[in-house]
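Worked example 3 (structure in, sequence out).
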């Protein structure tokens, strides 16, 4: 009797051991991959902390990880076609949401993918065999690049693939919250760990795919649910694996943990046992993102400049009018445009000088109405100031004699900062200088260096305008947009305020709503910035006036007189 009991126990023990071994052959679970049995290929590597990295940031490369032993799938029994798997992945790229190309879980009759192509083919197929029924490959793709040749719905989707990368069903990556019962979008390329569950019921022929952020329980509602008969797809002996691929867009593709079961639900991964997720690098701007950022930044600053400039203009004008209006209202407004005075005196040429006053020269001129005038140009280098200028205007306004000239009016040179009068043309000029400063990465004027605008024009003349771009950008920009910013900066800095675009036009040029007018280096007359030691302010000189305006008369106040009979 005792011998019979021992025999019975021996049989039960061995049967249990056999069943345990059989069960072990049908499933596996890895929390990290140190000491794992995985067969690696391509760029795949297990890191010291247990992370499985399928690809690094090399272009057009693939990486594979296989469970080394095949699993038995009997197509004659629907139950034996069932399987379940779950794994945690993270896709990390230097530019957030601008990586590529994605990864996939797959079941294949072979571990040999020598002829497969990286990039959009995810290391599974090539141009020749994609779509062939004799592939016997089932895959679930996590794709971060929209490939029109495969009819991808977007650049952030999950798809069920049978023998082809043209998915049987796909959906934008998202999950259904169990608590709020609403769909939440997930960015596959965010660099954050994401868990995926893949379940196939051979009896119901139902294929479900579910994803969610790590630490979120498996949603009750799957992202994809498709009726598929895999009896013609799965062969008797099949390998399970993971693949990832890069194209011209690159990412590090990581796997933190993986569980698979051929005969029932996959074991749940213990999140606490997973290796730490890979660090997400600080955002690095792509050329497209950088140019978009520059454009948005320039437009935003333009709005700020206009707003602040307008406010400063109103405040300063009001303050200035309190001083200026007292005498102007009393003696009448007689402002004349500097442009008309410049034309009238032929650009204040020396041959038009007819006299020298106490603190300025007098020029002969003719107004558009053919009225002959004398223009007294007052230099701020003299010791005379605003009070003396006003005193002269007031005195001459009161004088009446047939042998004395009559006062016709007065002006302040364009954009004279000493007066504190801001204009929209001044804002545009300043914004032009700002655009050049941002694009070139240097200040408009630096000691020992040529004027920034002149440097840009010189490089433009030599056909190398992009040489002025900020070297810290390392060429990460769209050349057409960089050229637009540089040329627009020069146009805004034109010596003639009327030639400069309005801020509305500047915004339209930057947004691409309007094409920048055709300009050449020769047609762009740029204003230079000069600081005078005598007066603590900055004034503008214009290259187009260099023949007649000397460096010691950069800032002037002009009074206008009608010649006597």
């Amino acid at each position: 009797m005792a011998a019979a009991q021992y025999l019975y126990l021996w049989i039960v023990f061995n049967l249990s051991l056999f069943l345990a071994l059989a069960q072990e052959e049908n499933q596996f679970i890895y929390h990290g991959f140190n000491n794992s049995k995985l067969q690696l290929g391509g760029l795949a590597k297990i890191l010291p902390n247990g992370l499985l990295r399928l690809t690094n940031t090399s272009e057009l490369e693939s990486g594979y990880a296989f469970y080394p032993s095949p699993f038995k799938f009997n197509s004659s029994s629907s139950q034996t076609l069932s399987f379940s798997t779950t794994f945690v992945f993270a896709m990390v790229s230097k530019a957030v949401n601008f990586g590529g190309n994605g990864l996939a879980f797959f079941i294949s009759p072979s571990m040999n993918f020598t002829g497969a192509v990286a990039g959009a083919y995810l290391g599974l197929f090539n141009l020749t065999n994609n779509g062939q029924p004799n592939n016997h490959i089932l895959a679930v793709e996590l794709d971060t690049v929209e490939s029109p040749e495969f009819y991808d719905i977007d650049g952030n989707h999950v798809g069920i693939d049978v023998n082809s990368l043209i998915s049987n069903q796909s959906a934008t990556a998202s999950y259904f919250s169990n608590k709020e019962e609403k769909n939440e979008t997930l960015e596959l390329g965010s660099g954050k760990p994401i868990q995926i569950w893949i379940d196939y019921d051979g009896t119901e022929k139902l294929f479900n795919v579910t994803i969610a952020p790590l630490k979120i329980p498996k949603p009750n509602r799957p992202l994809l649910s498709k009726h598929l008969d895999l009896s013609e797809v799965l062969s008797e002996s099949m390998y399970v694996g993971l693949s990832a691929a890069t194209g011209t867009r690159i990412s590090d593709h990581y796997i933190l943990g993986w569980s698979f079961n051929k005969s029932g639900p996959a074991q749940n991964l213990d999140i606490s046992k997973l290796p730490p997720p890979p660090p997400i690098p600080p955002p690095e701007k792509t050329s497209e993102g950088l140019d978009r950022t520059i454009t948005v930044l320039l437009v935003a600053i333009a709005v700020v400049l206009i707003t602040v400039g307008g406010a400063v203009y109103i405040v300063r004008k009001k303050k200035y009018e309190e001083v200026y209006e007292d005498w102007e209202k009393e003696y009448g407004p007689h402002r004349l445009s500097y442009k008309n005075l410049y034309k009238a005196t032929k650009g204040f040429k020396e041959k038009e000088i007819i006299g020298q006053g106490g603190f300025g020269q007098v020029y002969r001129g003719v107004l558009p109405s053919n009225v002959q005038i004398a223009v007294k140009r007052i230099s701020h280098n003299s010791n005379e100031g605003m009070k003396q200028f006003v005193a002269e205007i007031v005195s001459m306004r009161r004088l009446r004699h047939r042998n004395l000239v009559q006062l016709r009016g007065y002006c302040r040179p364009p954009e004279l900062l000493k007066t504190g009068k801001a204009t929209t043309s001044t804002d545009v000029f300043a914004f032009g200088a700002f655009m050049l400063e941002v694009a070139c990465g240097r200040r408009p004027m630096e000691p020992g260096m040529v004027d920034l605008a002149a440097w840009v024009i010189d490089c433009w003349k030599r056909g190398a305008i992009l040489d002025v771009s900020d070297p810290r950008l390392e060429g990460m920009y769209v050349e057409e947009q960089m050229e637009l910013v540089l040329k627009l900066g020069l146009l805004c800095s034109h010596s003639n305020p009327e030639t400069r675009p309005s801020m509305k036009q500047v915004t339209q040029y930057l947004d691409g709503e309007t094409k920048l007018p055709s300009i050449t280096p020769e047609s762009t007359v740029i204003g230079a910035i000069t600081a005078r030691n005598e007066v603590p302010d900055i004034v503008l000189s214009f290259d187009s006036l260099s023949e007649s305006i000397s460096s010691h008369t950069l800032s002037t106040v002009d009074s206008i007189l009608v010649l006597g009979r």
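Notes: The domain at 26-276 is CATH 2.60.120.200 (Jelly Rolls). Residues 287-331 form the longest helix (45 residues).
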